[in-house]
User: Fold this.
Amino acid sequence: MSHTAHIPSHRKPRRSSSKLALRAGVAGGVLSTIAVASGAGAATADPVTETIEMPTLTSGLSAAVAQSAEATQQVALDLELQAQEDAAAAKAAKTAKQAKAEADRKAEAKKAEAKKRAEAAAQERASRSSERTTLSAPSSSSSTATGSAATVVAFLKAQLGDAYVMGATGPNSWDCSSLVQAAFRQVGVDLPRVSQDQSVAGTQVGTSNLQIGDILYWGGAGSAYHVGVYIGDGQYLDAANPGKGVVIQDLSGYPASGAVRVL
Assistant:
């Protein structure tokens, strides 16, 4: 007996060949099953959807970008149109404001002119009223004519009732200036033929200081359209018109514009 026979061996016992073969077979079977299953799975698996959907996604993105660009362009066009409309409205408002200001200015000018004319007319009426009041009162001079004035008045009164005919020079029809001319011819005063010239033939006198025999005129001095002769007491004698003929009238009813004195 060996001196080492009683000492246990520290080596691991060897596995039997049969157990190793069994384990290898089981492992190989499992691996084979996995391989078969993997192959079958690979053969029956559906195609990868991502590779099919990528073109659709790209196309959708392109359409969205195009729509966004179109929308942006439309917004820009809308803003530009709105800006043009606002500018046009502002210009129209400015033009309307200017037109209104001009119309107001013209209206004010017309109003001022109308007021000025009304005031002038009122002054003219007041002046005529004053003259009418003055002339309606008895003259400061004697109502009895003497000398040359009496001769003139006598001739005029002798023609009362004669007809008025434009251009006529007597003896039975007269116009205003031919009657005056004929009356003063009786005392050697040679007057012009027409009323315009007769209104400046003597010394201008105020209508508030008339004397018998003064020549009255209506209209402007040098442009008178009618003449007559003052006979006293606020009256005058003239060849009035075709309807009246030669008559005596009151100055209060038809105030003269002025007078000249030739006697």
